[in-house]
Design goal:
Blueprint lengths: L1 H21 L8 H9 L4 H11 L5 H13 L3 H27 L2 H13 L1 H8 L4 H20 L7 H16 L5 H18 L4 H21 L17 H14 L2 E2 L8 H19 L4 H25 L9 H16 L8 H13 L7 E2 L5 H11 L4 E6 L4 H6 L6 E3 L14 H15 L3 E6 L10 H9 E3 L12 E7 L5 H9 L5 E2 L6 E7 L4 E2 L4 E9 L8 E8 L8 E9 L17 E8 L7 E11 L9 E10 L3
Helix pairs in contact: 1-5, 1-6, 5-6, 5-7, 5-8, 5-14, 5-15, 6-15, 6-16, 8-9, 8-10, 9-11, 10-11, 10-14, 12-13, 13-15, 14-15
């Protein structure tokens, strides 16, 4: 019987391996993956500095990935293979754990199949990040905890199980901080067992002491550092929003679900999951301990996650719900396994339930991060010329630039290696670093690669400065790079950066909103010339922070005929927005520093021709606001027929 079970388990694993191999991705790495891939090629000291001084990640995945890379290589395929191997360990661990907590191998098989069909798990299977390793460690640490608790106190093998559990549990929390949520569930289960079986109480003490001593070195290494600083915007995430996020990620993985996209497979999976739990309650199998264990590993991580994003830090990511994928599959296997007594009913019910779990894979969805970083850097190196330099918007892309080994000299604007939502790029820093890069390499052209660059450069200073001193160049044979943008600017010999710096520094206040609000320093139409209907105006404006922050202030950019009344503007070309952007409020403006705001205004085909005045109306919402609208002239342009 054991041999038969073993062969069926091996056959099932091979079948799942074949399914995973058939969907092996060919896509490029996205930003987060390039960080882990880059450090697989770096020194041990670099990994230590990254984990203890820069980022808030624990080091085990970096360490194991580097060791793996030293043997298998550091190509995209080789590094994805590490996650793939961890995925196989996870599936084997789920089978072993399901058999133990369900007292039936069928529970393990059903749980493994349900997990292998979920899109969240398939995302982790090929992601060059820590989630596949964390899932494997969660599965096998749970196996050894179960064996440890279930063994008689006189069993000599308990010492081996204790040591194995401590190693795996510590490896889990050295892989991802959210691994602590799993250990909280383990702790509750062990305490419950100690309460009903007094001889187990010493075991709880040994486990707690071992975990504390094992994690103490990392606590010392991070002493005095706030690992949360700058990693997320301030705010709260409601439990309902968080629940929807975790459910959608389980169902769809890292893909975008269109709002009007029926059917809602995630809700279907939730209904099946709840129906399966109800089935277990009705049939009442004997595996109540196993059900308690699986329920704790689901409820405790979920509860802690909801509490964290609501009360501690509003950093919501569906990926952080990875423990729920495994525990949900265990509950799924336990509940459906209760049907084993019904020889003919069980097969159609199992098939229908697993089919619903699989259905989201049939939806044609786009990935949330549709990044073509490999193609972008290959394009740069193929089309670059002597005298070219590269600006990364922002410096966090250093890992991608280094992993894909770009040959261009580069800088990051800003130069932060980790996204800091409280750090913003301002004109003095941007101008200084650009001037040094251009001067050092006698640059004639500047490439810009950006991915979520607006977070630390909300003013769009990088492109704003470069289009002021250079001319955007067309990119031949470029078909887009997903959510990665690539720009090229040819510098003008007659517009050096020093002259532009002087122009900005010599600006003086032209108008100020009432109540000592923002000060308007001036503006202009870029590349001023004769325009035609259908053209696009690029408008630069410069501001300075006032003594008072006016959060409801807006600007309306409009076209007027000469001598037109305030309400007689051309309504086909109007922009209406906050002074810079909705994500960069005046409270974030640096004092005594020019603040840049870029507007792009499209001239419709029926735009009137002749001389036109470009004006900006400063006002307060809702209307009527706290001050009367202020009218400011930006520039004058001439529009002529084609």
């Amino acid at each position: 019987m054991r041999t038969r079970i073993l062969w069926i388990s091996v056959a099932l694993l091979l079948l799942m391996v074949a399914g995973l191999v058939s969907i092996w991705p060919v896509r490029s790495l996205w930003y987060d993956e390039t960080v882990n891939a880059y450090f697989a090629t770096q020194s041990w000291g670099s990994i230590w500095e990254w984990c203890t001084q820069i980022d808030n990640q624990v080091p085990l995945h970096f360490v194991l990935l580097k060791l793996w890379g030293s043997v298998a290589g550091t190509s995209e395929f080789a590094l994805r293979a590490f996650s793939f191997e961890c995925t196989l360990l996870t599936l084997g661990g789920v089978i072993a754990l399901g058999r133990r907590i369900g007292q039936n191998i069928i529970v393990g098989w059903l749980a493994a199949i349900a997990l292998a069909l979920s899109q969240g798990f398939l995302y982790a299977a090929f992601e060059i990040r820590a989630y596949a390793l964390a899932l494997a460690l969660m599965a096998w640490s749970s196996v050894f905890l179960w064996e440890l608790v279930e063994r008689d106190s006189e069993d000599i093998r308990r010492l081996f199980y204790l040591a194995a559990y401590l190693v795996l549990a510590l490896a889990l929390v050295y892989t991802h901080y959210t691994g602590f949520f799993v250990l909280c569930a383990h702790a509750l289960y062990a305490v419950w067992q100690a309460w009903i079986t007094p001889r187990q109480r010493k075991l709880v003490v040994y486990i707690g002491l071992g975990l504390f001593l094992g994690y103490l070195p990392w606590i010392i290494a991070l002493a005095g550092r706030d690992v949360r600083e700058g990693t997320a915007y301030a705010g709260q995430v409601t439990p309902r929003v968080a629940l929807n996020t975790y459910l959608d990620f389980y169902a769809y993985g890292q893909n975008i679900l269109p709002e009007a996209s029926p059917p809602r497979y995630a809700l279907s999976i939730l209904v099946v999951f709840l129906a399966a739990l109800l089935l277990w309650i009705v049939l009442r199998p004997q595996s109540y301990k196993g059900f308690t264990f699986a329920a704790l590993t689901f409820v405790v991580p979920l509860g802690v996650l909801l509490l964290m994003v609501y009360a501690v830090q509003g950093k919501l990511s569906g990926r952080h719900g990875w423990p729920l994928w495994l525990s949900a599959s265990l509950l799924f296997g336990l509940s459906l396994g209760a049907l084993t007594r019904f020889k003919w009913l069980r097969w159609p019910v199992w098939s229908a339930a697993l089919l619903i779990v699989w259905l989201p894979s049939t939806a044609n969805l786009q990935p949330i991060y549709n990044s073509y970083l490999r193609e972008a850097f290959t394009y740069l190196d193929t089309h670059s010329q002597p005298g070219d330099v590269l600006v990364l918007r922002d410096g966090t892309l250093f890992a991608a630039a280094e992993y894909y080994q770009t040959k261009l000299p580069w800088i990051g604007l800003p130069s932060q290696k980790l996204t800091d939502v409280n750090h913003f790029l301002f004109f003095p820093e941007a101008e200084k670093q650009l001037a040094e890069l251009i001067s050092q390499h006698q640059a004639q052209r500047v490439w810009v690669v950006a991915w979520q660059g607006h977070i630390m450069d909300p003013q769009d200073l990088t492109d704003g400065i470069l289009e002021s001193i250079g001319q955007p160049e067309p990119l031949p044979d470029a078909f887009g790079f997903g959510d990665v943008s690539v720009m090229l600017y040819k510098l003008r010999d007659n517009r050096p950066l020093g002259e532009f710096r002087q122009t900005v520094s010599e600006m003086h206040p032209i108008a100020q909103t009432p109540q000592n609000g923002p000060v308007y320093l001036g503006g202009y139409v870029l590349d001023k010339r004769t325009f035609h209907p259908g053209d696009v105006l690029v408008i630069h404006t410069w501001w300075q922070r006032g003594q008072t922050v006016l959060p409801n202030m807006r600007v309306s950019v409009r076209l007027y005929a000469p001598d037109a009344a305030p309400n007689e503007f051309y309504r086909g070309a109007v922009l209406d927005q906050p002074p810079v952007s909705a994500t960069f409020g005046q409270e974030n403006w640096a004092p005594d520093t020019p603040i840049f705001s870029r507007f792009v205004l499209w001239l419709p085909p029926n735009t009137p021709t002749g001389m036109m005045t470009l004006k900006m109306v400063l006002y307060d919402v809702p209307l009527p606001g706290t001050f009367e609208p202020v009218f400011v002239t930006i520039d004058e342009i001439e529009i002529v027929p084609h």
